Amino acid sequence: QVQLVESGGGLVQAGGSLRLSCAASGRTFSTTRMGWFRQAPGKEREFVAGIYWRDGRTSYLDSVQGRFTISRVNDKNTTVYLQMNSLKPEDTAVYYCAHGSSSYYYDYWGQGTQVTVSS
């Protein structure tokens, strides 16, 4: 089992920045990759950013490329961050942290943190 706890969401004006954090605990030795997803009201959950734990390779949703940065800390505290800059109202959503023990699926999810961007 892996437990994920997100923090850092909130209300920000368009053009502002937020940094989300996700602290992982439990069987974190199984971590292959971690990611951030988001779900806006009335829409499906979508992939935002991901990072491979061993080599740090990253990938991003096209609409956040150049504005968002995913990073990791892999010491005794397994933590992944999502730095979000130049936020837009369309970035408003609940953001979820996800853990993958495999390259093919994400197997554990956090409870989500609300990000609201006002125009």
Secondary structure elements and pairings:
Blueprint: E1 2-7, E2 10-13, E3 18-26, E4 33-39, E5 46-52, E6 58-60, E7 68-74, E8 78-84, E9 93-100, E10 108-109, E11 113-118
What do you see in this structure?
This protein is mainly beta and 119 residues long. The protein has no helices and eleven strands. The strands form two sheets. Strands 2, 4, 5, 6, 9, 10 and 11 form a seven-stranded mixed sheet that branches. The protein has a four-stranded antiparallel sheet with strand order 1-3-8-7, with no helix packed on it. Strand 4 (33-39) and strand 5 (46-52) form a beta hairpin. The chain starts with a strand and ends with a strand.
Termini separation: 40 Å
Low-pLDDT stretches: none
Q: Report the radius of gyration as a whole number of Å.
A: 13 Å
Share of residues in strands: over 45%
Order of helices and strands: EEEEEEEEEEE
Shape: globular
Key phrases:
four-stranded antiparallel β-sheet, 11 strands, 0% helix, single chain, 119 residues, seven-stranded mixed β-sheet, mainly beta
Concise description?
It is built from no helices and eleven strands.
